[in-house]
Fold this sequence. Notes:
Blueprint: E1 5-11, H1 14-26, E2 32-35, E3 51-56, H2 60-75
Amino acid sequence: MAHQWEVVQTVSTDSEAELIRGFLVSRGVTVEKDSRLFTQEPVTFGAFGDVRIMVPAAELANAKRLLAELADEDSD
């Protein structure tokens, strides 16, 4: 059965996306990344685009809750 994927968060770097992906996966959430980044090498003045972190629609509410809890912990 194919999942209907929903964007749970959008970030600007692959590194940040990997941290969020790892956090969600460690809590049992299925995650896919959709990178829309474009970089021009060897020039490193920045990347264009973003990375979308996607979860199955059925897991969206749980993923949002987990990320909100993480944000609350970071603000303490």
